[in-house]
Each structure stands twice: as C-alpha cells, then as structure tokens.
Design brief:
The complex is a heterodimer of chains A (about 100) and B (about 500). By secondary structure, chain A is mainly alpha-helical. Helix content of chain A is about 35%, strand content about 5%. The chains are: A mainly alpha (about 100), B alpha/beta (about 500).
C-alpha cells in the first residue's frame, strides 16, 4: 500500500503554488494511497528496451515565413487582466522590500 | 422541428420551409422550457445566436452558396474560446472571462454559418467523467434526472439528448465525448489526434486532447465532423492532410466483408450485464450484415488506465501553470503588499476545484525528480506498447469494437467521493487517446436492468475516421429498423416540453 503523508502533500502543493487548508491536505493524503497503488501498475511489466512515447505523432519543428501577421491589439490582450496600468499588466510585488 | 435530425433541418432550411431564425428561436424556447432541470448550459447567447441565424437567412435569401449546416443551431462545450462570450472551462478561476479571440473550431463553425446557441457545462478543465466536477454544479441526464450524463462533455451530450440542440461540440482526452454520448443515447466521435485544431481549446493534456462532434445520428455527426476538421497553421500538431470523407461513409454504411475485431481485454469482468448483452447483440447484427467478426488480443490495455492517470495529470500540472492570476482570470488575496507568489497560491486555491487540485498534485508528484522514471517514464513506455497492440490488431481487422463504458449512467453523487471508482469508468475509452487514433460511440439500446442507454464503441486507425462512420451507419440502420426509429426518439419526455 503506497502512502503520501500530509507533509509530502503540503510540499507538492507548495511546488504547484496551491495554498491548501489543513482539511484538504489530510483528505488528499488519505486518497493518494489508492490512486498511487493503481497507477503504480505501470511498474509491473519489464519495460527494458521499450521506447517512450511522449506524443502520438512524429513531431518536427514547424517554422513559418518571418512576416508580420495580425495579432491581438494591446486593448484586447489586456481585456481580461485582473489589474492594468499604462497599457501593461499590473502584478503584485515580485521582489522583497530590500 | 426540434425533434428532427440536423440533416432533415438542413433540407427544410434549403427548401425555405423554415428560417434559421425560427429554428434557432425554437431551440432557445426548448432551452427555456427544459434547461432548468437538465442544466446543460452555462451560458446561453440568445442575441448572438439570433444574429448569426438572421445573417444566414439573409445570405440564403440573396442566393449565396451556403455550407450544408448553415443555419443549424449547435451547443459548444465551454472549453473552446469564443470571442466576447464567457468561456470558463467549468472553472471558477475563469469566471467572467471573455476571450479576445475565436478558437479555430469556432471560426470554422462561424464560417459555415452554424448558429452557436451557447456554452455547455463540463467537468472543470475536462477532468472528470460525470460533469459533477464543474465549478458551477452538475448537469442532469435527460433519460433520468437523478443520474449523471457522463463527462467531461456532459453538458454538450445532455443538450443534444434533450433536444436543446441537434448538434454539439465536445472534447475527448480520455473518453469525454464517447462516454457521455453512450450514457445519453446519442452519437459522439473523437476524431484522430491532430484532425481538428486545438487552437483555442483550453488545454488539459495536450498530447491527448481532441475536440469532436456530437449528433443524434451518425450522418449528423459526420456532417459536423467535416466542418470542424482540417489542417490549421495555428496548431503545430495539426495533421496536414485532406479530411477523410466521413459524410460519404455515413451515407454508404456498408459493412459487407469488413473485418471487425473484438478486443478481448475490453469486455467481460467489470462490465454490467445489460451493457455486455446489448454489445453482443450489436455484434451479431453486424455479422448478419456481412461483416466478419474476429477476436483480437491487446494485452497491454490492462495497463492503459494506470498510464493515462500518470500522463494526463503530468501534462495538466504543466498546462494549468498558466492560471497564475497575472494576465487574465481570477485574482484573490492581492492586498496589503502580498507577494505575487502568495497571490498566485491563494488564487489557485480559491479558483480550482478538488479534482483539478488532485490531478495537479498527482502530476507534480509523477514528474518530480526521484519518481519521474518510475511513474511518468514507465507510463510513456506503456503508451508505446498500447500503440503496438493496436498496430497488430489493425493488421487483423479494419475496425475494433468494445462497449464504450462498463456501466450505464450512475446516480449523481454516487462516485464523487471515490476518485478511483470514477476513473475506472474510462477503461475502454482511454486506449484510443493514448494511441492518438479515432473512436465513435453510438447507441446499442437500453440495458435490461435499468432501461438506460448503452454505448457501442468503434475504433479505427489514425486518419481512417471514415471507417467509424461506415460501420456506425450500418449498425445504426439495422438497430433503427428493429426499434422503429433511433434510440433517442424513445427517450422519456421532459417536463416543460413534450417529446
């Protein structure tokens, strides 16, 4: 039976930038055992020498001619902004006071 | 008129027996009458729809050449951006957001004169199989309002099943078109990965996501498929090839000599008795029409569910990082000099529902150093084995078949606290997504034990989507002649509107 402790969930939530209540951390921790047991089945097979598939199609880089095409106007690009100032996105403080 | 097929409506429009404005108004009236109970729509764009309809009517009056579906109303899953119309993906984090652009699917619908009635409910960011994970409350199955319509495209499926729209668009990452189609007694197709542009489709798991059509008949679904498919320079994974002739295939519906492979691993234990019975009957019908039934072995499918629930959450944990409270969408906790990081974390807590958080955390875990090879790396290798299983199976058969879902529609609330039980419902649909091929679900009848719709799944190789329609049309015709009409015409009447 796999487990993921409350503290491990809290660490992952921090990495994923999701604040979580104590109740949520405990609930997720209690559900993770069953989920991890189920997904850990991928380790049951001997996968030596099997290639990994990241995508169903062969992918290659596609470049377009370097010409200017119509794009969003500044007003459109800012239309969903939670806050804006002087035609820019206004964001909360990203550096400390120092 | 609303109880007709889209093809019949198109004929009536072309013969000027009805106008698009009248047809659109009839559907808006139906929505007013029944959607209080069904709750298929998150947003009804009455003015926009009537304006689109009036424009088509004007073009028709002027004798302009129109697409086959011009003037036909449609319901759009809220995962696709539509300029100026609220688009939430079922999430509180996007409440009130109005995209400044159209997704390619929407552009194609508009170019074809298809009338977009509104945006339909869904599991938040398409994560779920019952539409109960919507941030705006569940959608109810028109066959039995105490049950879920499936998901994640449950709103779109319910809208078509409740005659609120003859056609709808959904998206299918692990079965989210086929499973709700099965549970609501209609037709749904997940096209080949890359056949329909993902530009403007809000991403859940980019290597698995694909938008596709819903209809009440195979032909209606094919007509919509042809309109939305095609290469798009705005999507680098879009396939640069001509669209398979799915409408012609739906009209031919001939399975004489077609080899139909039954996947051994996708039946039997875990499948409800009534589901299995209807599936077997449909197989017998196909055989009686001249198809050759063979059994195929896909041993790796046993591990598909596990691989999917690592790959999809991993990709989602990365894709959903864009919801950071900075450029659009919800922002909370931005007071008293809170840092950007604190605002981000508070917003993502307030804006995301439980299932979305669960999958982001699972994906973050599966991708973290120390676990990456064991989980995500192994899942990617299983994906290779599944592709190889399909290759072998398609060497022996033209199409492959299985029940679409192991059970019929379950009660609202029945599985919502047991994520693993919910995930198991995707067992038969997930392999298609992992391999990037195409799949259809069409009605196979009602299960004896609960009188609820059962779905029959058909799978075909990449860019052979026409085979789905060819086999699907044959089965539909045989079943309809047995029942005296398609299954959906047998659905119980909803309060507020006689069927």
């Amino acid at each position: 039976m796999s487990t993921l402790s409350r503290d491990e969930v809290a660490k992952l939530a921090g990495l994923a930038r999701i604040e979580m209540t104590e109740e949520e951390l405990v609930e997720l921790s209690s559900q993770f055992g069953t989920i991890l047991d189920a997904v850990a089945r991928v380790q049951e097979l001997n996968l030596d020498g099997v290639k990994a598939t990241s995508h169903p199609q062969p992918l290659e880089n596609i470049a377009r001619p370097d010409v200017v095409l119509p794009s969003l106007s500044p007003a459109d690009a800012l239309s969903g902004a939670p806050a804006q100032e002087e035609q820019r996105f206004r964001v909360p403080q990203i550096l400390g006071e120092e | 008129m609303i109880f007709k097929t889209a093809a019949e409506m198109a004929t009536s429009l072309a013969n000027k027996e009805v106008s698009s404005v009248e047809l659109t108004q009839s559907h808006l009236d139906r929505i007013t009458a029944v959607d209080g109970d069904v709750k298929a729509f998150l947003h009804v764009d009455k003015e926009g729809a009537l304006a689109q309809a009036a424009a088509v009517d004007a073009n028709r009056a002027a004798g302009k050449s129109l697409s086959p579906l011009a003037g036909i109303p449609l319901a759009l899953k809220d995962v696709l951006a539509q300029k100026g119309v609220p688009t939430t993906a079922g999430s509180k984090i996007l409440q009130g957001w109005k995209p400044p652009y159209d997704s390619t699917v929407v552009s194609k619908l508009k170019d074809a004169g298809v009338v977009i009635l509104g945006k339909t409910n869904m599991d938040e960011f398409a994560m779920g199989s019952s539409t109960e994970n919507s941030g705006y409350g569940p959608t109810f199955n028109p066959w039995d309002l105490t049950r879920t319509p499936g998901g994640s495209s449950g709103g779109s499926a319910a809208a078509v099943s409740a005659f609120e729209a003859p056609l709808a668009i959904g998206s299918d990452t692990g079965g989210s078109i086929r499973q709700p189609a099965a549970l609501t007694g209609i037709v749904g197709v997940r096209p080949t990965y890359g056949a329909v542009s993902r530009f403007g489709l809000i991403a859940y798991s980019s290597s698995l996501d694909q938008a596709g059509p819903f209809g009440r008949t195979v032909l209606d679904t094919a007509m919509l498929h042809e309109i939305i498919a095609g290469h798009d320079v705005k999507d680098a994974t879009s396939i640069n090839a001509s669209v398979p002739s799915v409408v012609a295939a739906a009209k031919s519906g001939d399975v004489k000599g077609m080899k139909i492979g039954v996947i051994k691993q996708l039946q039997g234990e875990g499948y409800q008795k009534g589901v299995q019975t209807r599936f077997t009957e449909s197989l017998d019908l196909l055989a009686s029409l001249g198809a050759e039934i063979v059994e195929v072995d896909c041993p790796s499918f046993e591990f598909a569910l596990a691989a999917y629930y690592l790959i999809a959450p991993s990709e989602c944990s990365s894709n959903l990082a864009r919801f950071d409270a900075m450029r659009y969408g919800l922002r909370t906790g931005d007071e008293g000099g809170a840092s950007a990081e604190a605002v981000m974390a508070a917003t993502r807590d307030a804006g995301f529902g439980r299932e979305v958080k669960r999958r982001i955390i699972l994906g973050t875990y599966a991708l973290s150093s120390g676990y990456y090879d064991a989980y995500y790396g192994s899942a990617q290798k299983i994906r290779t084995l599944i592709i190889e299983d399909y290759k072998k199976a398609f060497a022996a058969a033209d199409v492959l078949v299985s029940p679409t879902a192991p059970t019929t529609a379950y009660k609202i609330g029945e599985k919502v606290d047991d994520p693993m039980a919910m995930y198991l419902g995707d067992v038969a649909t997930i392999p298609v997504n992992l391999a990037g091929i195409c799949g259809m679900s069409l009605p196979a009848g009602l299960a004896d034990e609960d009188n609820l719709p059962v779905g029959f799944q058909i799978m075909a190789p990449a860019m052979q989507d026409q085979r789905l329609y060819q086999a699907g049309a044959a089965l539909e015709a045989a079943l309809s002649s047995k029942w005296g009409g398609t299954l959906i015409t047998k659905a119980p009447a909803l309060k507020g509107g006689a069927n």
